[in-house]
Amino acid sequence: DQQVKQNSPSLSVQEGRISILNCDYTNSMFDYFLWYKKYPAEGPTFLISISSIKDKNEDGRFTVFLNKSAKHLSLHIVPSQPGDSAVYFCAARSSASGGSYIPTFGRGTSLIVHP
Amino acid sequence: EAGVVQSPRYKIIEKKQPVAFWCNPISGHNTLYWYLQNLGQGPELLIRYENEEAVDDSQLPKDRFSAERLKGVDSTLKIQPAELGDSAVYLCASSLGPTPTRGYTFGSGTRLTVV
In 3D, which of B109, B104, B110, B107 has the Cα closest to residue B30? Predict the structure, then answer.
């Protein structure tokens, strides 16, 4: 049973527009969420994270929104650039006692930004 | 600063043969992870080390997989004997502690093909 779900395997957007990547989770013990970006033949690289005590975190063109009641988070990229074309992984972990520090990853969403 | 270094980048072996992967984490990172990534999936944890101690290896198939992290720095992951289903990308990651706020740094991975 997948605890972190990225239900859209792919997303295509036009350069300059907004990209919205979605992620849902089922484990209510998750309290820290991360987004990773992966280019072909490279390892994932950290992009942005958010703690469950917040509902928004922004870093340049990247913003992550967290809706705890819906167990949903999303990554917004504005404006999208062709260099953003990559696979994006959502990950979640729990720091609570009895929880695991190990992040659980979703299956990823492949983003293609067209010039 | 050098990133997480993995070798080899690619490996093709026949089934039932042994294979080993090597990882050199970022200097000073005491936490080291080995992940398995199948095609179209997110990374899945195999084992986590805190210094030289394996603290989470519940997902490691111990009948054929083994790992070590001598002196708490470099790590080696071994498969003996390899099976066709072991074909995947093996990722190593490191972090300063188990709950880094800026995520985990991944290496480029070793792509294993078992024929």
Answer: B104
Q: CATH classification of B5-114, choosing from 3.40.50.2000, 2.60.40.10, 3.40.50.300, 3.90.79.10? A: 2.60.40.10
CA A20 to chain B, closest CA, distance in angstroms equals 19
Q: Tokens 């043969």 map to which residue?
A: B17
State the count of interchain CB pairs (< 8 A) between A and B.
Answer: 51
Tell me: the pLDDT tens digits for B72-84? Answer: 899 999 999 999 9
> What CATH superfamily classification does A4-114 receive?
Immunoglobulins (2.60.40.10)
Residues B42, A41: C-beta atoms closer than 8 Å: no
- Model pLDDT for residues A11-62, shown as the tens digit of each residue: 999 999 999 999 999 999 999 999 999 999 899 999 999 999 999 999 999 9
The two structure tokens encoding residue B10: 């690619």
Write down the residue that tokens 């998750």 correspond to. A30
- Strands across the sheet with A19-25, in order? A4-5, A19-25, A72-77, A62-67, A56-59
